[in-house]
Amino acid sequence: MQKLLIKGKKNLAGSISISGSKNATLPILAASILAKDVNLTNVPLVKDIFTMIELLKFIGIKVKIFKKKKTIQLKNSNKKINTLAPYKLVKTMRAGVLVLGSLLTKYKKAKVSLPGGCAIGTRPVDIHLFALKKLGAKIKIKDGYIIAEAKQGLIGNKIRFPSISVGATENALIAACSAEGKTVLSNCAIEPEILDLITFLKKLGILIQISGRKIIINGKKSVKKKVNHKIIFDRIEAGTYLIAGALIGKKIIIRNVLSRVIKNEIKILKKIGAKITVKKNIITITKSKNMKKINVITKPYPGFPTDLQAQLMVLMTQTKGVSKIKENIFENRFMHVPELKRMGAKIEIQNKTARIFGPSKLTGAEVMATDLRASVSLVLAGLIADNRTIVNRIYHLDRGYEFLEKKLKKCNAVIKRI
User: Fold this and answer.
1) Domains of the chain listed by start with CATH number
2) Which residues are catalytic?
3) pTM (2 decimals)?
4) Please, which residues have CB within 8 angstroms of residue 125's CB and are 6 or more apart in sequence?
5) pLDDT tens sequence across 247-287
């Protein structure tokens, strides 16, 4: 099993280009089932994307990947379509459940395995199923599978989500595209990745309006035959490298970003004391010698993202005083804490809140990744720790970070895969 070996205390300097967003690509790949010919560019070459491609191939979509160009071409000839998404292809990646809305709305039936992914919380699919039932689907769960059908097709409806859910918003949005009539979704998630999905669906010819947390979709049975779309940048990857710059950056230049999308994250890092300048699609960040404590609560967008909580916690170990993070999205998202404590971090957990006492001197250790974002937090900790850090189970990391070692090495980090 592969590991990462990191030698800490090396100041980072250089330029990092941010990849396309994994969390935008996955729902767009699922929505591509609705189209005949799709060309996607700026696609990140990470494990979750390859897993979704395998799933689409299993369903019957023809897929070509051009790795050097970071481009994916998809063709759906409608022949021999398999409306099954098996456990073996959905077990490692929660986004696999997003083909449910596509298959159901286009082919009137679907059998999709209950999803897997990171062990950061229950993340039930009940809100997804609640929305699809409102559109007229008949659904049952049997032997670990969601079995759904809509013999007469889906019909538009007014749906208010009981709580904000990114996946449920995406599934309902895709399903409503070929439903008959108008669908009004309210209390929606409005993450930039969902807005990118909406941009893609509009290119298919679907009429969609968005106002605050309300999305109105006018269903359409046939869509445009050919669509080209460039995936937006990965704001979580950008946030991760910005935090690396705040931790140990002599001068890090982050390229290919839209600063307005991550203005809240930039504001928090400035508050802590990082020196940041923003110019068009480039952000420059330098470490501060006097980092201040801060209190943060994770919230749906535009609030601070839960996917950056673990990384920010590493930065908090270096601030003066007691910082706090309240995790409001997932119940099990502090699993990186015991590993950080093994490296010397002083952290207390009470209910949903972590109290981080700083500054702490971190020392290299052998640690284990438990999920995607926890794994990268341990890499960040290794970059500032004395001696050597070994991060185990980095297959989590490979699910969502493209060329991580390469990008860090380019900035003088001493890191290698063994």
Assistant:
1) 4-18+233-417 (3.65.10.10), 22-230 (3.65.10.10)
2) 118
3) 0.96
4) 97, 114, 115, 146, 167, 168
5) 999 999 999 999 999 999 999 999 999 999 999 899 999 99
